[in-house]
Amino acid sequence: MAYEGETMEIGVIGVGAIGGTIARKLSANGHSVRVANSRGPGAVKDFAGEIGAAAVDVYGAVKGADVLILSIPFPAVEKLPADLFDAASSDLVIIDTGNYYPDMRDPRIAEIDAGIPESVWVSKQIGRPVIKAYNNILAPSLAELGQPEGSPGRLAVAVAGDDTRAKQITMQLVNETGFDPVDGGTLDQSWRQQPSTPSYCCDYDAETMREALAAAVKGEAEKIRDNWKEIFGKLPANPTHADMIALNRSVNTPPSKS
Ligand SMILES: NC(=O)c1ccc[n+]([C@@H]2O[C@H](COP(=O)([O-])OP(=O)(O)OC[C@H]3O[C@@H](n4cnc5c(N)ncnc54)[C@H](OP(=O)(O)O)[C@@H]3O)[C@@H](O)[C@H]2O)c1
Predict the structure, then answer these.
(1) In percent, how much of the chain has pLDDT > 70?
(2) Is the Cβ atom of 97 under 6 angstroms away from ligand 1?
């Protein structure tokens, strides 16, 4: 299953700005998509109907799926049922889109503060390997700036993880949702695509994304993160997408590259 061009069974947990957009695109591409949030099938029924997906609960998103997109805030990861993956196929591909936003949106998580990569923490929480993808693109870019493969200046999305097959399938999905997949290395190396690193949510093409991933310096993003309130406070009221990209490029780029 899950060869290029084949229809896949895709579960999506979290149908907000990121998960909802991925679900919409993959359903439009002909995949069999089922969507869930924290409040049961009734709460996602309208959205599912709109995009041609099935409304399910979180167990229904996992059962029989080839791929699961996990697109929920970090505190919600800890609240997923402990037996969620008990009946899942051993080769279920789990794509984690998450980012840790301490003190802005999320409570502090000691292990991540101590330095473990965010998606390694997610993987430990759910007891399954994950592929990190779609975390370093802003929601409006994901929704509106996808282009067909080969388009000049096509934007890129970093994909990190350990399992070759799972990574290949994720890259295939990134490609068919309109973006150039760029290999971000192993899950241990996925800190290079976390918030406030040079590649983070800057609308870069594949070549610049590769350079930005390579330019990341361990520990620097955390220093920027400590000043987020001040940094984001400089944005105008109701910032535009262009304001966000300009800010990310100016703040996340190492001084030697700017
Ligand atoms: N927004 C961006 O530009 C962006 C970019 C890249 C990555 N990300 C990351 O991707 C993840 C999702 O972001 P988002 O912006 O799409 O979030 P969002 O718009 O707030 O949507 C979050 C979704 O998760 C669901 N959810 C929350 N708790 C849940 C639980 N316990 N079980 C199942 N579903 C649950 C919510 O539904 P209910 O609460 O209604 O159940 C909602 O559908 C976050 O980690 C975020 O940091 C965001």
Answers:
(1) 96
(2) yes
